[in-house]
Amino acid sequence: MGDLFSKFDPLIAERQALLDTGVRDPFAIVMDEVKSPTLAVIKGKETILLGTYNYMGMTFDPDVVAAGKRALDEFGSGTTGSRVLNGTYQGHKACEDALRDYYDMDHAIVFSTGYQANLGMISTIAGKGDYVILDADSHASIYDGCFLGDAEIVRFRHNSVEDLDKRLGRLPAEPHKLVVLEGVYSMLGDIAPLPEMVAVAKKHGAMVLVDEAHGMGFFGPNGRGVYEEQGVEKDVDFVVGTFSKSVGTVGGFCVSNHPKFEVLRLVCRPYVFTASLPPSVVATAATSIRKLMHAGEKRAHLWKNSRRLHAGLRELGFTLGTETAQSAIISVLLPDQEITVRMWQALLELGLYVNMARPPATPAGMFLLRCSLCAEHTDEQVGDILGMFEAAGRAVGCIG
Amino acid sequence: MTDRQEIFAKVAEQIAPFNKKGIALAEGTTFAGDLEWDSLTVMDFVAAIEDEFDIIITMNMQAEIETVGQLVDAVEKLRG
Fold this sequence. Notes:
By secondary structure, chain A is an alpha/beta fold. Chain A has helices at 9-20, 62-75, 90-103, 114-125, 140-148, 161-170, 194-203, 226-229, 264-267, 269-272, 279-292, 296-316, 337-350, 379-396; strands spanning 33-36, 39-42, 45-49, 107-111, 131-135, 152-156, 177-182, 184-185, 190-191, 207-211, 238-242, 252-256, 319-320, 329-334, 352-353, 355-357, 367-372. Chain B is mainly alpha-helical. The relative contact order of chain B is 0.20.
């Protein structure tokens, strides 16, 4: 009998060889205790968290936690139903109201995860005969949204306005087109040149969807994302986002001013054929979103932290994914898997958790240690983080 | 040279920079098996082919193309 799992043999062998060198498994970390948005206990060691995407530190906000507890008491632990049947509670509507206010848009639809938001939006609005044009470095959920749908899929080189223009220009004029962009690309933390890209998309008659998963909360005067900061609000047709980063819980959404937007609730399979979010989750999300509208000081502190970490790491001699701190993601580029894992482990043993990322999730076969800052990291913690990078980098030999 | 031979020659030219092991190219040479290309190499190569011939090879089409010969056929068709 053939074994369907034999296709995974090379990966199993590669992983085993890595673990046999005695390193800890970078993809099997357990947080035994979580003390705050920036501190956890891993294997008995108090560890600074620098890889959580918890940008605005809302996970332990007292108002957010209280809202969740209240909803748990009043509405129970789960909805056991689809949004279109028994799974829409007052809390789901309140969450969509909060999103409409936050984004100042006519419509908001809440999905059970950010992944499902992209899956649902892209696969539903781009159908047979339509075209989806996406950046080559797009997140897996965008690619999977393309594969779930029936549209024709065209890729352009990462952040290249010229390449997007050229590819749109080669497509037939009649079919409908959707250009999918991200405000912040999560592997290197670089941002998109949205004014140029959106202008090119509009020139060729395409609709534009921007994923602001890593931009919500701290880009733009109202924290709406990179598209707000760069002033292209009126030309973006759909904004997709998540509750699992700045909002501090789980869930996904899309907001739009499209007059026919509400029909999605009937035709979007990843919205219809899954259970809705638990009442406690939508209550925490709605409370957090409303608080993020007035989080100017936190935003300023997050930017200060990001710029300081970027400059400090550079000064220590690390190679980083961007020339300057473009977002709250700072990626350290390392030459190969072995050095990356050794560096990752050295940091962990010193008491610092960062994400390790490797191909195929990374662009151009890169090995990365990805750091994401939080508005709740104190100045002292950022100093400690730099100290740990210096010690680990010297021990592993990746800085002089 | 026929049109097809000419396309084959141009495709071979585009393959060269990515053909690290110097595999001899034939109609039946496969990208994943013989040339051992990963998804990132395929992406760069497809972009190069698209620009060379001023065409679009959608990801849907790419899924059907496994050999050099199939790619030459696709380019011939797309150029019209």
